[in-house]
Design brief:
Elements: E1 3-5, E2 24-26, E3 31-33, H1 49-53, E4 59-61, H2 69-79
Antiparallel strand pairs: 1-4, 2-3
The structure holds iron/sulfur cluster (2 copies).
Length: 100
Amino acid sequence: MATVITEECINCGACEPECPNGAITQGDDIYVIDPALCTECVGFHDAEACAAVCPVDCCVPDPARTEDEAQNYGKLSRIHPDKSFPALADLPASLSRFRK
Ligand code: SF4
Ligand code: SF4
């Protein structure tokens, strides 16, 4: 599932610099996540970095956007064309929340 920011957001901005994919921006009312850029931190961390720093726990899985590990991994090459990642089969647990 892509991560989504709920209306509980207090606009603290803590999450924005933590996203490895630049998926988070300040919206009109609250911060927002571009689901096309959210990999649930697959390729970078073992958990969602935005959720880890959010003081009000409003970065949550979006039930309307269920995505498996392969779908999240598949976004990486488009988002980071200049960067190389381990093959999907070789992703260590430290780089995917799906392998905990
Ligand atoms: S889960 Fe990770 S990739 Fe998705 S918006 Fe949060 S920090 Fe960015
Ligand atoms: S860390 Fe949480 S409260 Fe702060 S801007 Fe991000 S989503 Fe909103």
